Amino acid sequence: MSRARRFFAGLLDPALGLALAVAYVALLLATNKDLGYARDEGFYFQAARSYEGWFSLLFDSPKAAFERANIDRFWVANSEHPAFVKSLFALSHHFLYAKWKLFAEEGTSFRFPGMALSGVAVAVTYLWGRRVSGRVAGLVAAVSLAMMPQVFYHSHLDCFDMPVAAMWLVTTYAYWRSISGGGWLWAIATGVLYGFLLNTKHNSWLLPPALIVHFVIARGEGFWRELRAGSVRAPLALVAMAVIGPVVFYLGWPWIWHETGKRLAAYVAFHTGHEYYNMEFLGRTYWKPPMPLGYAWVMTLATVPAITLLLFLIGLGASVKRGLTVRLRWLAERAGLAAAPGPLDRDLFSTELLWLGCILTSYAPWVSKGTPIFGGTKHWITAYPFLALFAAQGFVLAARALSGQRERVGKAALTAALAVAVTVAPVAIAIGAHPWGLAAYTPLVGGAPGGASLGLNRSFWGYSTGAVQGFLNERAPPNASVYVHDTAMQSWEQMAKDGRLRSDLRPAWSPAGATFALYHHEPHMLRVEYQVWVDYGTVAPAHVGTYDGVPVIWVYERPQR
């Protein structure tokens, strides 16, 4: 192959990864309009506007921007969370909305960085799957991740959950490249990326233990020999994470530039002692730890498409078998009974061990009896790219089993058909569930009706207001007041600014006196509905927002006297 052909061939996979990212972001933008703003988004809109004020000052008067009074003034907003993603929200709003007018809605400009990082996660999942399992398998991995219904929901949001999943994945990928012959540049990149991961969300604290355990196990007997000799050679990437990561984290969060120790301690204390939220699981509402040990696993089974889970289990099973074989060959080699595992076997064992470590580490907090209850699947969403990568391995095995001894052309056609077959259902489920993403349950538990019958949570954060905005706009008289229930006031105000809700509709803090009242269904909020019944003198809602026949949000209208 000529040098030119090799060059263009080398661009194919990066180009495919970029195309996947762009297509995913385009899909997210196209489905954004009717997805209401969740509670936390309202708080992050507010924080991003504050940070934008600091960036504007930085552009106009850099010296003043670095004065402590101005740093504290602008960065105190939402200081319980790191700054990287919220800074992207602020800069996106500043440039893409206010300056360049690329978005018609303010809210979309705030949401765009989260969408873009979700696209990055899809692209890197493809690239990693391509390197380990092949091009078609890489595509299966990317689509399987993108079309997990709750991943699709969270990918739209002005929040941290998909950004932290993306940054975890990208950092781990860079680490893998650095220990797979990529050299010192990938190691340095790992350190820099880990700094951004630290500055994204506190999930970042869990990654170093996963990588250290991976290093110890993957090194095998060599690690223990080095340890006994007192000369353990840690990967350069781990050193870079320890040295460069904290520096990048510090530089990217102006709030901690002053009183660093005190403010970092407050940040850690906030998350280790996080307030509790109510969460329904199997018909019972939990409001303080511990959650049942099966919570995370049952919710994964109920929300990840069954075909993706099946491929994951096939890939994981083959990986475990391969890992045991490698380990036995290591032991046999020590006893002089067999040759050591070959480099390809060792590399694949190391890669799959890394994926498994990231999955187990992401789920680990839910084994602890002290983990605060403050959400659902989003808290182990960092595991899902690696689940998709194992599913790609399962796809390869399934394709080999089906193709048998067919000719090359026949094998290619069958592999392509199988790829379509294993991704069409996840696509249908994710698109069909929109904009009810948190109420989406897979056919394995009977879909949304089955999830409701099992007593699984169907609403959270008040996001479903977007699904009834059309009814309110059409039905409400001029200047009507609406009790917003679980929707944050900032989120309601953003919907009005964006023209999703009529600007004359007035949000109310209480059902009393309001013309309309929203009720976002969660069992612990039934008292709110009772209050509406008493105040309105009716138990019949004027409108019910449903997904697949399951009520999710009620709209009550005060009867005319």
Q: Care to describe what's here?
A:
It is a single chain. By secondary structure, this protein is mainly alpha-helical. The chain folds into two domains: 3-315 and 355-393, no CATH class; 463-557, no CATH class. The protein has 23 helices and seven strands. It has helices at residues 3-30, 39-60, 62-65, 68-75, 84-99, 106-133, 135-146, 149-154, 161-182, 184-198, 207-219, 221-229, 236-251, 260-272, 295-303, 306-334, 343-363, 384-403, 408-433, 447-454, 469-475, 489-497, 526-536; strands at 279-281, 284-286, 481-483, 506-508, 516-520, 543-547, 550-557. A five-stranded mixed beta sheet has the order 4-3-5-7-6, with helices on both faces. A two-stranded antiparallel ribbon has the order 1-2. A hairpin with a 2-residue loop joins strand 1 and strand 2 (284-286). The chain is globular.
Characteristics:
single chain, 561 residues, mainly alpha, five-stranded mixed β-sheet, two-stranded antiparallel ribbon, 5% strand
